[in-house]
Amino acid sequence: MRTDPEHTALPPTPPTQIRVAVVIDRQHQPSRWEDWRFTLADVALDDGQYGDTPRLLRDDGKAAQFLFPGLPVELRRDEGEGYFLNLTSGAPVWFVMWRIDEEDPSRAWPERVTLSYNEAGRLLDAQERVDNRPLPAEVRDWLQAYTDAHYRPEPKKRRRPVSFVAPDQRD
């Protein structure tokens, strides 16, 4: 999904919440073992240019693409470590949790978008589907500024080897 540069820039004073649009691709019978396969195609900043209603972008009978606009991404102080881990991973990403309709397995939609590595891990631990897409530079800079302002990593403490700790002080 391509957008104009003026639609992808964050405001000069970054908010703690932005909106994004998610694009999901669907393939019909990609193999003889699957009826449907879904993939996360794109995540883009959404300042309202995509509307408020999910919609089908294209469908040729074999492959379809769906747009889900208006999903909130909120930065919270209690997720600072998760943002820090995402930023220091070497390749920061959007994490998108999405679901497949149990009654109609040809339908899937995104439920949540986060920038926290820890939140994505909790969702995966809960057996949710979580995929990721690369984070654009302007969002990475926004996340970095927020993390720098609100998160301080715990100082690393050197643990003494057990052999140097008195027997009555060992765990």
TrEMBL record:
**Provenance organism:** Sphaerotilus montanus
Entry's Pfam families? DUF3305
State what protein this is by name: DUF3305 domain-containing protein
Outline the segment boundaries, as ranges, of region: Disordered: 152-171
